[in-house]
Write a structure and sequence with these properties.
InterPro entries: CYP450_sterol_14alpha_dmase, Cyt_P450, Cyt_P450_CS, Cyt_P450_E_grp-IV, Cyt_P450_sf. It is a single chain. Helix 9 packs across helix 10. A hairpin with a 5-residue loop joins strand 6 and strand 7 (381-384). The chain folds into two domains: 41-115 and 360-429, Orthogonal Bundle (Cytochrome p450), CATH 1.10.630.10; 122-358 and 434-494, Cytochrome p450 (Orthogonal Bundle). It has 494 residues and is of the alpha+beta class. It contains 21 helices and twelve strands. Strands 1-2-8-5-3 form a five-stranded mixed beta sheet. The chain has a three-stranded antiparallel beta sheet with strand order 4-12-9. It has a two-stranded antiparallel sheet with strand order 6-7. It has helices spanning 2-11, 15-39, 55-61, 64-75, 98-102, 111-114, 118-121, 131-144, 147-166, 176-193, 195-200, 202-214, 218-222, 229-255, 262-267, 282-312, 315-332, 338-342, 345-357, 394-397, 442-459; strands at 78-83, 86-91, 108-109, 171-174, 364-368, 372-375, 381-384, 389-392, 460-464, 471-472, 479-480, 485-489. Helices cover 54% and strands 10% of the residues. The structure holds protoporphyrin IX containing FE. Protoporphyrin IX containing FE (HEM) binds at residues 138, 141, 292, 295-296, 299-300, 303, 355, 360-361, 364, 431-433, 437, 439-441, 444-445.
Length: 494
Amino acid sequence: MELSALSEGLQALPLSLQLASGAAVIFLSLLILRVLSNAFPGAAPPVDEGLPFVGGLIKFSKGPLPLMTEMYAKHGEAFTIPLLHKKMTFLLGPHVSPHFFNATDDKMSQTEVYNFNVPTFGYGVVYDVDQRVRSEQFRFVADALRTAKLRTYVPAFKMEADDYFSKWGEEGVVDFMQAFSDLIILTASRTLLGREIRESMFKEVADLYHDLDDGMRPISVLFPYLPTEFHRRRDVAREALRGIFKKVIKARRDSGVKEDDILQVLIDSRYRNVYSGRATTDDEIAGLLIALLFAGQHTSSVTSSWTGYRMLSNPKWFAAAQEEQRRVVREHGDKLDMDVLNGMDTLHLNIQEALRMNPPLIMVMRLAKESFPVTTSQGRTYVVPKGHIVAASPTFSHRLPHVFKQPDEYQPDRFLPPREEDKPLPFSYLGFGGGRHGCMGQNFAYLQIKTIWSVLLRNFEFELLDPVPEPNYTSMVIMPKACRVRYRRKKLVA
Ligand code: HEM
């Protein structure tokens, strides 16, 4: 009786009011459903949204680190933040991480979460192809980065570093981040893109790379094709780079001359299980070169910079690295090859600890294609639902005090016996990720950073003019803010 009176009352309203009341009823129902499903996640990790529908975005807008800090304090190692119609589950720390890193791509997929890279890397490669093709393309990359090849890249690292630092004066002020970015694009050009580009097209390629890089901003993760000026310049730069790379590839194929660089390995690669076993196309090679530039450029220059800042603000460790160089010079003279670099344990520990404190990648992500259970350090089991975006965080996990003692202190010996804090649980140390998609360039990166710092330690002394910089969390790759360092040329006496 009351319902029919209500219905008659509604029908008496003008059509616009009827529609508005209908929309309000639908919205209220959705709101109630959303609040209820957030409040009772069942076996899934706790959901924290606050204001329904937009609360997650508001939390996220403060930055992922404040968000993780607040949510971890509230919910522990596993929790979910709704982002509009998507849900993002954070898994923080080694106890909840094995499935994230070990699962096959059909269970934990990268394609959907990393395909914002497609307009940067280009089409037909990496996140624009299905997983079978991608794994073959990554096999080509793995070939280019295997030990025997790495050995041949070290002279190029050394040559570029010697040349670059020879242009510094007797004394001056530099910003490590700026200097190492400039140097590493030179070494990357030589080892990755090849002699031809390094020697005759470097400036043009570096400028185009700059535009491509500038076109990848935090907003590009959500809207990679947003019609903005920086995306337009990105697209122009990608096409221009592709054109240059393709010319070089053609000239090299025509000449029949083989070089010792990553470009050559990619030119000589053939698919095995897809594309009827054909060779790589020039377009694919160009795309893979761009992807590798992106994987290695900022990550390596950021880590080289933090290694410097951390050693300089911990004089005991700077002195230990100098002492190691004295020993190495006594034993090997000026020779700096892969074996000599691999013997620099103290420098290695410094880089590893700098990367623990300041990893350039704040989050790595996957899409859960199937639900999976995780068990926290407290023994609580949750089931992460299929369809959630799942995130792990090197930045946050590296500061967990139950994994790394006094995590805010620079203690490179935490990786040595008897402490070996990264060892008891896999995925404690995530500087290079881990598991199925761990960094392919890890050894390349260590060799490159060790070469740079060997040349610096042997030829200069330094003084930090500013406090150790804060990380800039607004960039895609987390970089140190500006910091002035005074250098003075001084030969290390062995
Ligand atoms: C200090 C320098 C570097 C750091 C900190 C670093 C870090 C990482 C991390 C954390 C991942 C895992 C991403 C994920 O799980 O989603 C990764 C993947 C990767 N890195 Fe690096 N990286 C560095 C240098 C390099 C260099 C120099 C190269 C190549 C020359 C490279 C090539 C790759 C590739 C190809 C992958 C993808 C592996 C896969 O998905 O199977 N990286 N890197």
